[in-house]
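Batch 3, record 17
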Amino acid sequence: MKQAAQKKIAQFIGFFLLRSCLTIVLAVLLLFLYDIGRKGGGAISWEFLSQAPRKGMTQGGIFPAIFGTFLVTLITAILAVPLGMCSAIYLNEYASQGRLTRLIRLSIRNLSGVPSIVYGLFGVILFVNVMRFGTSVLSAGLTLGLMTLPWTITASEEALKTVPNSYREGALALGATKWQSIRTNVLPYAVPGMLTGTVLGLARAAGETAPILFTGAAFFLPYLPKSAGDQFMALPYHLYIMATQHHQIEQVRPLAYGTALVLIVLVLGMNMTAVVIRYKLRRKRR
Amino acid sequence: MNVETGIAKIETRDLDFYYGPVRALKNVSIVCPKNRVTAIIGPSGCGKSTFIRTLNRMNDVIPGTRVEGTILLDGKDVRAPDVDVVELRRRVGMVFQKPNPFPKSIFDNIAYGLRINGMRDKSKLEEVVEKSLRGSALWDEVKDRLDENAFALSGGQQQRLCIARALAVEPEVILFDEPCSAIDPIATAKVEDLIETLKKGYTVVIVTHNMQQAARVSDYTAFMMLGELVEFDVTEKIFTNPANKLTEDYITGRFG
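Prediction for the assembled complex:
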């Protein structure tokens, strides 16, 4: 009897601790969202979203930053999505699973842990200086693309691993080539997962400051970038300026919170898109 | 080997198979006669599945494996450099242990093998799908719902779907790798009846750990143990008067 009571108490304490941890995490997250929403909500207006900053950024909106973030994310996607997916397909489906492949995979995993400022400095050397793209939206997008690649490769590989081997073998046993079995019987079932992982990686890239700091983001521009060779304004960098570098820091605080809110909504929106894509493609399969 | 077998469709000679350093098959020489059912029986881990998977070179896709010896299909070495493994697998179909329908419609499952071989003609596809489903005795159960996902079928139906899918590409040989181990007894009976009728048009090789099943469906039986062929003979002889003491012990249930 005594033992049974002890077991129950132990279980109670165990679950209590687990629940407490989750509660703390959620509370911090909600508090954070609430604070940004409360302080930034007041700044949000159509003008704020559609106009350029005015009067030393103490008035006006953040449209150039929104536009720049979209543009740079687009370039990131153009680099990271096809390269990442194709690399993952090669690694998971074709490469012989020997020591070299394991080493490559380990390196890729490790690259995703490299601090983003390091990517930023690498981007300066490679894209800005060596390849002479200058400080531009192209250099910044490519730098973010490099940073996102390890994520897209890893996520795509995980998605490919969820496709049962029996689909591959079943196709081969019917006289399919390896390529046919992958194209018709593996990829269709892996693509939703691959896309989800990829969009999550892009959302992370959209919110990064360090990699674009030296490669193309500008403090303030009176015009929108006209080509991939121009500099651009971006939400995370704009936020950084407004929060720490502005000469009238108290006055622009509401605008800074507004920018933060827009950035969070943007990233959340991208993540939701990933969820919707996965859901839709999964349903189509059934 | 002095067993009267008629025309050999598949023949292996001194077949060895290695998973890395482990020798899983040792000098296996078996004849699978044309238009007959040959059963491979033996305790778990004896190399039955490994053996059957060498016949259509499905083991090629497992890294670190090695084959030695000869595998003949119609007298021609299937491992010769001029043999196209893709064409070999079309000629030697396979049904796996666990039903493995693709997450597509019933129709698309059956049509899969034809489509990857470039068949686009809709009416021809429909014709082959019906013929294949009739061939696997599934037509009457699914003819009104060919557009449904194959996962909606029961386990036994799924296995017959996989048989129909194999039939659709008109193979000459069908390999069954323990086809009934994951389905219920009634479904098993249906699959067994099917195998019986299939031998009119095909050469069948079936791996099974169910001795009664081997006795019921096969014309010839090979008994394997620890990677070696212990005895190969006419099924009736194996089950009534085996030449080898090990075979007798196994079929009478003394081990295994």
